Amino acid sequence: MISLAGRDILHAWGKFVLTSVGLGRLIGVTLTMAGVYRGMVDDARVLLDNSGADFWVVQQDTLGPYAESSSLYDDLYRGILSMAGVARAANVTYLTMQVRRGEGDVRAMVVGVVPGGPGEPGQPGYLVAGRHITRSHYEAVADAATGLKIGEQIKIRRNQYTVVGLTRRMVSSNGDPMVFIPLKDAQEAQFLKDNDTIVQQRRRTAANPAFNRPGVPDLLEAVIASQSANPYVNAVLVQIKPGYAPEEVAGSIRRWQRLQVYTRAQMEKILVGKLIATSARQNGMFLVILAMVSAAVVAFIIYTLTMGKIREIAVLKLIGTRNRTIAAMILQQAVGLGVIGFVVGKIVATFWAPFFPKYVLLEPGDAARGFGAVVVICILASVLAIRTALKVDPAEAIGG
Fold first, then answer.
1. Among 154, 191, 227, 263, which residue's beta carbon has the most beta carbons within 10 A?
2. Which residues contact 14 (CB under 8 A, 6 or more apart)?
3. CA pair distance 277, 358, nearest whole angstrom
4. Do residues 77 and 86 make contact, with C-beta atoms less than 8 angstroms apart?
5. What would the DSSP string read from start to end of 180-247?
6. Are 249 and 82 in contact (CB under 8 A)?
7. Backbone φ, ψ for residue 252 (5° rounding)
8. CA dist., res. 182 & res. 136, Å (int)
9. Whole-angstrom Cα distance, residue 264 to residue 258?
């Protein structure tokens, strides 16, 4: 059987290849959009994995340190540590900010952790260079995505820190790289007011008539001291002992400590179902729009190619070629265009994904589903061209 689609492609292969490449870039954008969503979900799960916690203890009636502001006294971990089933408990703070680096800055999530080795809740699981934080002040471990180097100086609020270690894939739910500093320094960076504000508060306190009476100076000093203290953290990360059910231990903490506790499954539901839900719906809308545009582009291309060979189709009809055969030829060309476009799209998506500011995760399952969607779109897009071809009058083959 004469393959009109194959002969037409060979006759104008340059135009067909360029058209496939253009369609492939559009498909590549579609695959990348799916990869961006997968990357956001993976960032959220990596954040939970890297914390090393079995569950998170946060302020009551809040969604935790990642989705909402949470403030706890930093001595609460002692009571949690004494409860049955709790193996480790460690304070942690989270603060997303611009970290000064020389003359520029870098967007990062600053994490305050208790100095110690790997395995402690909140600590980086592994390092690619350098060492962990061992001192109580002015040392930092940074994710490699920040571009920082061992020994480099950074500034967080008013203090300078030396980068002593580098880790990898330690990111926030927004994809911002993490910078780990000692807990005391992080508390100061997050909760301590600047010097001018503290001076103004002391003046207001001293000007209060209640403090101008005899016998109150000690109380005044206590108030001033309390204004300079930073006894707060965002959460307590807890690891449980083997053999204990996480929900059972979490229930005891809720009941006796009057705090909110989230297990791993609950925290993942918050991050994926609430924190990135809007971005997921936006990506979904983009995918629908791109699918519609792709279908329109394929339909236009196939229709144009079909209209360009009306006389050839009329000749086929004149010699007795069945409509089914003509429709199959046009369908082959449409599917061929989609297959080549998908291959090009997969290649370009894989090539440019590492250059995106956020993590793009291209999963094989998404690629398989994308290929199926492209084939279906091409089949549907060829319907208009097939209907046009079947309406061709064989007399046009001998017409002027």
1. 154
2. none
3. 17
4. no
5. EEEHHHHHHHHHPPPHHHHHHHHHHHHHSGGGSSTT-HHHHHHHHHHHH---EESEEEEEEPTT--HH
6. no
7. -65, -40
8. 6
9. 19
Burial class (CB in 10 A: 0-12, 13-18, 19+), 121: buried
Q: Residue 219's pLDDT is what? A: 56
- Geometric angle at alpha carbon 63, from 38 and 78, rounded to 5°: 115
| C-alpha span between 164 and 197 (Å, rounded) | 32
Alpha helices in 60-108 (DSSP H): 76-81
Rounded to an integer, what distance in angstroms lies between the CA atom of residue 132 and that of residue 123? 8
Q: Rounded CA gap, 355 and 353, in Å?
A: 5
Read off the tokens for 56. Answer: 């998170």
Q: Is residue 96 classed as helix, strand or coil in its secondary structure?
A: strand
Note the pTM of the prediction, 2 decimals: 0.77
Query: Residue type at 247?
Result: E
Q: What are the two backbone dihedrals, phi and then psi, of residue 248, each rounded to the nearest 5 degrees? A: -70, -45
Backbone angles phi, psi at 112, to 5 degrees: -95, 120
* Interatomic CA distance for residues 184 and 156, integer angstroms: 13
Domain boundaries, the chain: 4-44+277-397, 60-192+230-258, 203-229
pLDDT at 378: 83
Distance of CA 101 to the CA centre of its chain: 24
Between CA 187 and CA 232 the distance in angstroms is: 7
Angstrom distance (rounded) from CA 383 to CA 400: 28
- Average pLDDT per block of 10 residues along the chain, 400 residues long: 56 71 86 88 86 90 86 90 91 92 90 83 87 91 92 91 93 88 89 68 68 57 56 91 88 89 90 82 83 80 76 75 80 84 91 86 89 86 81 67
Give residue 2's pLDDT: 45
Rg (CA), the chain: 32
Contacts of 218 (CB under 8 A, 6+ apart): none
- Distance of alpha carbon 125 from alpha carbon 80, whole angstroms: 23
At CA 183, angle to CA 177 and CA 184, rounded to 5?
Answer: 135
Instruction: Indicate the residue type of 20.
Output: S
* CA nearest to 251, candidates 3, 55, 34, 101: 55
